[in-house]
Amino acid sequence: MATLYDESWAPILKPLFQQDYMKQLSAFVQQERSRATVFPPQNLVFNAFRLTPFDNVKVVILGQDPYHNIGQAHGLSFSVPAGIPHPPSLRNIFAELVTDIPGFQVPASGDLTRWAQQGVLLLNATLTVRAHEAASHQGRGWETFTDQVITAISSQLENVVFLLWGSYAQRKSVLIDANKHLILKTVHPSPLSVYRGFFGCQHFSKANAYLTQKGKQPIDWRLG
User: Fold this and answer.
1) Averaged pLDDT for residues 211-216
2) What's the pLDDT score for residue 122?
3) φ, ψ of residue 145 in degrees (nearest 5)
4) Is 65 a catalytic residue?
5) Given its phi and psi angles, is residue 197 left (phi above 0), alpha (psi -120 to 50 degrees) or beta?
6) How far, CA to CA in Å, does 100 sit from each of 26, 97, 125, 222?
7) Which of 20, 55, 65, 220 is catalytic?
8) What confidence tens digit (pLDDT) does each residue in 3-27 have?
């Protein structure tokens, strides 16, 4: 199991994997994989924890579900592998970055691995999904797991920026100590809500201003 995530996460993740709900969740996901296509591939379910060591977490961008179409999900919220067309929410994230971050240009690839390697934890609340069936693995235990991860980040780290987009993500703010961390909230970047406050939110520059103020290296959001 250790190869699935960076070893720095072991003190947090290993006790969670021992809990009954995680054993039941694991059995459910394996059963799903035996009879249907499940995304992301098994070796990428914990990709966010592999690419962003625990002590390096500076920013958390919380998504809800993995993408459920072929080739899209690779274990990072809002991200898609190179060669996959940008989904609508990711297009809108890039559009906001163009106006918020000087020099940002929309990249050819929607792969956000470079952010993850700089300390941006790209965490979905649910880490698996059945192909072409949105929300099909919600309510099975993943939310309990990721809530415990968010709680651990809040309690054990300091001066982390949490970007909570949309009402689902914003409900997670109760897990975060606002005295130790910066919580930035706005609507989801999906086409349904993006014009109600996501465009112009300047979350990326605000995150960097906070990190700089706290003596941390800001994120280079540029991808291309």
Assistant:
1) 98
2) 98
3) -60, -50
4) yes
5) left
6) 40, 5, 26, 11
7) 65
8) 799 999 999 999 999 999 999 999 9
